[in-house]
Amino acid sequence: MAQKIYVEELKKHLNKEIISEFLVTQKDLREGTKDFYIRLTLADKTGSLPGNVWNNAKVIAEKFNEGDVIQVKGVVISYKTQIQLTVNKIIRLEPEECDLADFMEATDKDINKLSDKLFKYIDGINNNYLKELLLTIFEDKEFYTAFAKAPAAKSWHHNYLGGLLEHTVSVTTICDFMSVQYPVDRDLLITGGILHDIGKVFEYEVKANIEFSVIGRLVGHIPLADQYVSQKAATINNFPSELLMKIRHLILAHHGEYEKASARLPQTLEAVALHHADNMDAQTVGVIQITQKMQKDGAVWSEFDRLNNRYYYLK
Amino acid sequence: MAQKIYVEELKKHLNKEIISEFLVTQKDLREGTKDFYIRLTLADKTGSLPGNVWNNAKVIAEKFNEGDVIQVKGVVISYKTQIQLTVNKIIRLEPEECDLADFMEATDKDINKLSDKLFKYIDGINNNYLKELLLTIFEDKEFYTAFAKAPAAKSWHHNYLGGLLEHTVSVTTICDFMSVQYPVDRDLLITGGILHDIGKVFEYEVKANIEFSVIGRLVGHIPLADQYVSQKAATINNFPSELLMKIRHLILAHHGEYEKASARLPQTLEAVALHHADNMDAQTVGVIQITQKMQKDGAVWSEFDRLNNRYYYLK
Amino acid sequence: MAQKIYVEELKKHLNKEIISEFLVTQKDLREGTKDFYIRLTLADKTGSLPGNVWNNAKVIAEKFNEGDVIQVKGVVISYKTQIQLTVNKIIRLEPEECDLADFMEATDKDINKLSDKLFKYIDGINNNYLKELLLTIFEDKEFYTAFAKAPAAKSWHHNYLGGLLEHTVSVTTICDFMSVQYPVDRDLLITGGILHDIGKVFEYEVKANIEFSVIGRLVGHIPLADQYVSQKAATINNFPSELLMKIRHLILAHHGEYEKASARLPQTLEAVALHHADNMDAQTVGVIQITQKMQKDGAVWSEFDRLNNRYYYLK
Amino acid sequence: MAQKIYVEELKKHLNKEIISEFLVTQKDLREGTKDFYIRLTLADKTGSLPGNVWNNAKVIAEKFNEGDVIQVKGVVISYKTQIQLTVNKIIRLEPEECDLADFMEATDKDINKLSDKLFKYIDGINNNYLKELLLTIFEDKEFYTAFAKAPAAKSWHHNYLGGLLEHTVSVTTICDFMSVQYPVDRDLLITGGILHDIGKVFEYEVKANIEFSVIGRLVGHIPLADQYVSQKAATINNFPSELLMKIRHLILAHHGEYEKASARLPQTLEAVALHHADNMDAQTVGVIQITQKMQKDGAVWSEFDRLNNRYYYLK
Amino acid sequence: MAQKIYVEELKKHLNKEIISEFLVTQKDLREGTKDFYIRLTLADKTGSLPGNVWNNAKVIAEKFNEGDVIQVKGVVISYKTQIQLTVNKIIRLEPEECDLADFMEATDKDINKLSDKLFKYIDGINNNYLKELLLTIFEDKEFYTAFAKAPAAKSWHHNYLGGLLEHTVSVTTICDFMSVQYPVDRDLLITGGILHDIGKVFEYEVKANIEFSVIGRLVGHIPLADQYVSQKAATINNFPSELLMKIRHLILAHHGEYEKASARLPQTLEAVALHHADNMDAQTVGVIQITQKMQKDGAVWSEFDRLNNRYYYLK
Amino acid sequence: MAQKIYVEELKKHLNKEIISEFLVTQKDLREGTKDFYIRLTLADKTGSLPGNVWNNAKVIAEKFNEGDVIQVKGVVISYKTQIQLTVNKIIRLEPEECDLADFMEATDKDINKLSDKLFKYIDGINNNYLKELLLTIFEDKEFYTAFAKAPAAKSWHHNYLGGLLEHTVSVTTICDFMSVQYPVDRDLLITGGILHDIGKVFEYEVKANIEFSVIGRLVGHIPLADQYVSQKAATINNFPSELLMKIRHLILAHHGEYEKASARLPQTLEAVALHHADNMDAQTVGVIQITQKMQKDGAVWSEFDRLNNRYYYLK
User: Fold this and answer.
1) Please, how many CA atoms are within 13 Å of residue C221, restricted to the half-sphere of its CB?
2) How far apart are CA F308 and CA C100, in angstroms?
3) For chain C, which residues lie within 8 Å of any Cβ of chain B, measuring from their own Cβ?
4) A288 contacts in F (CB within 8 Å)?
5) H-type helices in E102-162, by residue range?
6) What ipTM was reported for this prediction?
7) Burial of E28 by CB count in 10 Å (0-12 exposed, 13-18 middle, 19+ buried)?
8) Is the model's pTM score more than 0.80?
9) pLDDT confidence of B47, banded at 50, 70, 90?
């Protein structure tokens, strides 16, 4: 496949024909005065622009949907001072034919180093049942591939490829730190840090953007993790039921409050600790994401953060 | 075993020795001026009274705990106008040796009729997967015995033996009614009505009183039901994953709001309907329990209902 | 009057002159570069479109207001791919000159059958005072005409012509069902179901759309019903004051919580029951309205329901 | 009737027989070791003490209830350092036979001066309809007697005899002040100040203590005032419906927020003003009551005010 | 400087060149098809309009920022029926070169009369420490100039030049009134009324619009006032620490509730009183501002007040 | 002074005369049947017991108050199986005459090591202004003595002698950890960690128990710290105002939410981080205190934690 041309580079190709891949975020078949046409919004991780398909619109419109990645052949034009694309040809791509990293932000951390850290934490666990449970889960190649790619959110913190792995390692690092500061059961807390959000592997559908899966909305990442971990524990000989109950509690209570959709309130010291570790990382990284983007612009204040009802000072 | 003498009958035995069974709700080994003695609170479903063990207290105190049912031999006395028991001998009973109905309130409905209704609802389901799932669960004798005995709550509505069965049949009856009124998927809604609270079988420990089990507190009846139903569905050939997801959603969302510890918000019409059926029965029966007890006293107003911040008018 | 041409049919009349009636939802007299013109939004129950009055705008603008229904003579044109109306002549219609059903959604239930059901419920009441009260209210022709036409809301559930009657019958049916399930005073509960929302007859002004009346906003349907019912009861010989007080309580408390603008908290068993009957019907039908509209489009998820903070799954 | 002896004076009569009147706040018929006896709590506005009826208890217990005022003949004794009354004879008194001011706190303001102020405000109203409405209400002797005696609350602010009149005059004075500061309709606001709480005349039953009446709990003072005022307005020729609507709105909205059981939100400038006048007086006087009582003790901090979650500094 | 031409007057100058001063509320340097141009929004207190700089855009764009007032030379044109300005020359003005009253609303009260009232209240204080503290603060010319110009808010009530002085005098007048009604320490309450919002002098930056200053957002007007008053008190010989503590409490607690960003809850009678005085004035004037603007239009209802979740009736 | 005898040791001295020091937590002068007597509750960190002064009560009662530490000479007796003290002589002690550690719990950490850690963190700060500010504050001997002794709370977490120092070091350690994990300004965050709670030095009065000081209640530890730090910064040459503003923000915003009495919302990355560090330590240690006390008893569940609405599992 030819080198991808990013949205932000298109103005260099004004009035020329290009071939590139874009995510379709909007698709409208409209009736014009003479004929039907398709109005598109095409995007990649550097931005988005309008596109129009003037010929054969009805037939072409059948070939793809919003959310698909398409290969486009078209001419870059300028209309009312705005860059647009007059599209002549469209080929729909399968997910495996395109590089997600072209369309979505990804962690700027090194995935391999994050994986190494994760497995080192697993390796450092003394309780054999817990270590076997973690290895059973994370040595499953198919699962791990999905896990390492998954975002930790659709919006707010870590909402990018690899965000789940990054967040998991970061929370586990905080748990490790806390196990030195406070009289907690270190093995249990580290296990909780590693497992608390694994349900997010199933909660999102990551094609060229992040969407909730149907089961993600109807069941949610907390019961999904609860069930996944229980099933894996059931495959281990004599896994102590008391220990499994404590791990389930860590997962079910990690959101901390019912108002924040926690399935339980934290009722063990480790569940309290895990909740604070998770919250610290999520909130801090959320604010870092907001403020770093703005700092590049030289602004004094961030845009208004509706979720938290405030502006952030950037100087 | 001799005929049980209830707490409310003891005054007829003043200054006589009796033998009867009581639940120990309080046990205090205290140091008196001369020797140790045990201060007890003994209870059955008709009331409670104090008891004292004056002789051999240290040894006897080892034999039983709060929450146990004991057979007591002792003398009924009157102290400062209050009936008490001077206890001379104590035998700890195993749960299976005593009749729970002596110690706890039970539903005044006919258990067999409730069971018949339940199975009739199961029988009326058209979808074979759903019917098989329900039969797999409810034809398990051991499970059904626990289910038919379980309360639906520790306090508030249906907090008595058989309360869970009574509440389940009542909610299912409302679901049946709703399926005539509204364009819902009847099979799904009936299934949801039947299954929504089965986690409560595991949430409470019913000995001679109702207590939360450890797993009841740490995992809770909603994830417990979610998992129990998922495991049973896994034993059925080709159980459709879409259908299982919808049932799980019914269970996970039936509390309706995060603030009320719901694991999900109702996102299907059936989940909305089930939440209202459950809420209607729970709240209405809760108020019936409060007001009926008071009406016997001829009072005009109930006692203050702290949970709901009001009095009830009884005339 | 000629056959109404609906908004959704206008494209068939492109570039032709038509005569039809529309509701004016927006009216702007604007100063153009040469002369004043009027920019309109015209609507009926099938949709809306822009219209322009280019000639004699200042004079014509005096003749009607937003909220009026007007008869329009004009040419259907296409401007930037969008259908518009170039309006040449306008006649303002009196409410009684136009058919509300052209402009607003109406219940798809049969009004006569709903009325029959309502009167059958009244007929089944044993308490003569209650029956006489209900007949006094509902046999008043003028009142009943308004009642049978009224919506039950401006937005959310039953927000269409006949919605109040439909909702009233549905809530009363639930009350009837509950009176079999629970030890309630059936006559009282049925009366409450029938009367609880009658204040809405005065709360809305239904012209060609639904608006709050001034008294609807300043006094509200709950005190309006409280007063209407009290006045009617005062016309009945020896109507028991205790009974009136209970009915007033049913009306005043039916919203259930102060936060939801209830004037009282439910403090009788019947008031608790009525609140749940009302809430069940309102919420369930609200979700049915949202999901049925979407299901026609073949969507998987509904649009976001801001009021309830969720999407609904449509499959 | 002989001079009343107050609870706080009883210690001067130790071991002597006295005759005096007390409010019965608790009455328990108990079975003693030999015979039945009655355990009483007797109170007046200076305090309370225990009393016992040892002879003929079963018969005497039939003669009065909690909430009654009784004339007692008995001996003042000291038991475990505490003053008690051994009661030998009891006569139940009718409300009109006793002086409420012996049993309940009363305003320390002069009732006649408060009444004068109230009627001066009525006199100063220019709008004849409003003036006539107010005179119709307040020149009704029976109503005014009840009004001038009524408390404004059961607990919190102005919870004493005459409290409603005192609060009404105070709120009206604030309204008068506001009508100079702000561009409000003075006649309307003064009328609102005078009428806003008149429903409290019916909300409480004032015998020898303050209790909610049944209609006070089931209908509440806001709808009671709404209806009372509407009925009185209906007796006035041509009372403008727009004006009545505005007065009703003032009454219905004066609590300001739904959470505080307001039937409407304030939607006119006068309703906003009235709410603030009412709130200012209620809260300020509430705190004055708490702090003045404590200041007599020389304490630095008041007791904890649970309702408002704070202590008050008294220096 | 030539006479200012206001935005609402520009249509009289259609197709003519004008010179006037405007506030820049938006500035966008855009790349056109041929060259860069600047897209502006220009405003004064009578409205706003778009402006375009077509020539030398890159250089001119360096000379000023959003929030600046500029002197503009340009031609008034009409584009798509809308008035615009084609800007030919721009001179940035220093704040002291322009009259803020051209760009912002100002109080319609007489500033001198308000000042007189304020100083009369100060003069009427008996406690010499309090009087000296107030004089130390308000006789500082630089401070007073800023104080008399400051708004009391960015949006909602008193959000105009002089609004802080107007609000301060109004709240102090209410405090004066309350000191007659209630047994408060008048000197203290008057002092609290005068000082409670002085932190707003530092909270806003008033150039040609109202913006929060950085310290206004990060520290806030309450701690700013707390510190300013404490520093001034420290310059007075032997200022009693108990008295300073009470003043600080008045400032820190005047928002009344933590949810409304109060630093303390009111714990003295004067703090309770001040909170109600402040709230009464802020809320009443807020509604007056909303309703007066609308009443000029002859509307029946105000626009929706999102902050308070209601419409206001204007008749 | 003789060796202190603790409350828990008194039973060994039954019927003997002892001399020891106790905190008076309750003092009641009561009128007995013959004479006045004083009823006391006497306490130290091991428990409390009743005491009685039978002779010369009126005179002795003048000599001390609740909250004082007194030296007591008296006889240990047993009354109704309970240990009491018959007090014969009382000497009131000045705070400096008694060892607080006898009456209150204290941190089990080594104070000197905590101090070393604190000064090492100060030493590691690169910004000279911040380092000088911290040294100015913490090298003040009188301040440091109070700081090292102060508790961090009256109830909940770290409510013991030295708790403030322990909590400060712990929060600073978390800040140090976070400065490695996240792109924060380390010097600023460490300074925030050290200073955030120093207002608590003035918020509590620590005599032989922990009480809020008057200024602690009326001004609170957040404005107290804000002012203390500002005053100290003012003594440093050219302390940058921008830097001071950021430190003030850290202090004012560290409670995180208005509902939790924060004076500001965190609006810088460091303020967000500090809030989470503070919260993590406070909540985790709060739960550790609850659970550790219970674990000694061998209980399965802690007592109910009302503040957080839950039990904790102790196994």
Assistant:
1) 25
2) 56
3) 170, 173-174, 177-178, 181-183, 242, 249, 265-269, 272-273, 276-277, 279-280, 283-285, 287-288, 291-292, 308-313, 315
4) 182-183, 269
5) 111-123, 128-138, 141-149
6) 0.86
7) exposed
8) yes
9) confident
